Amino acid sequence: MTLRKSIRDILSCLPVLLGFLTIHSALAAAYIVPSASMEPTLRIGDQIGVIVPSYGLSTANLPFGDALKPSSETNSRLFGHLPHRGDVVVFRAPANLHQTWIKRVIGLPGDTVALMHGRVILNGAELPWKDMGPTREESRKNVWRAAERYEETLPGNIRHNILKMSQDGDLDNIAPFTIPANHLFVMGDNRDNSADSRVSVADGGVGLLSVWNLQGQARAVLWSWRDIGRTALVL
């Protein structure tokens, strides 16, 4: 990482840090990670800073936005624009609009996505993995399981770490499909413990995420009670 990129990342987090001081604002908000679905990137109990207007604004950003979802996805965001692949986003959970969830954007509208033996195939190309060695997954608080850590690379050389416990689980094989307009394909970094776009809304997952649901982009770990060294970690 270059010094210029480090400075740019720190400056980009200033609105988050300022927003954290006031807990919530029009620019930034703080959230607590409730589950293991984004390990190893985010851990249970991490407090994360979110830049609210990263993708424009929709009624999903309002306190009672769960009751204000539009009937049409067209023009559902003010000053809206799409996330980048690899962004960590927070959103109203489609299965329960009262809840805020967090996942990573893998596919954008028009992308073709498939999974085979746990590997993501994006627009016909398998995303590269680099084995980073054995680790542990905290499936719930203070309950640990053996896992393998991989570095996955998205187009544009966007790299992030993921966890895998097996290569042929229930969510590891999905036939190719194309993401429709105004929707995203999102996944948890903990690939075997995440109810994400691989799981339908009817089954308690995210399904293909409507861009209306977006509430902002997670940019930093503001505080980690369980690992002080992760405090101020830029995502």
UniProtKB/TrEMBL annotation:
Catalytic activity reported: Cleavage of hydrophobic, N-terminal signal or leader sequences from secreted and periplasmic proteins
Origin: domain of life: Bacteria
Peptidase S26 domain mapped to chain residues: 10-223
Membrane disposition: Single-pass type II membrane protein
InterPro entries: LexA/Signal_pep-like_sf (IPR036286), Pept_S26A_signal_pept_1 (IPR000223), Pept_S26A_signal_pept_1_CS (IPR019758), Pept_S26A_signal_pept_1_Lys-AS (IPR019757), Pept_S26A_signal_pept_1_Ser-AS (IPR019756), Peptidase_S26 (IPR019533)
Places the protein is found: Membrane
Pfam families: Peptidase_S26
Family membership: Belongs to the peptidase S26 family.
Name the record gives this protein: Signal peptidase I
Originating gene: lepB
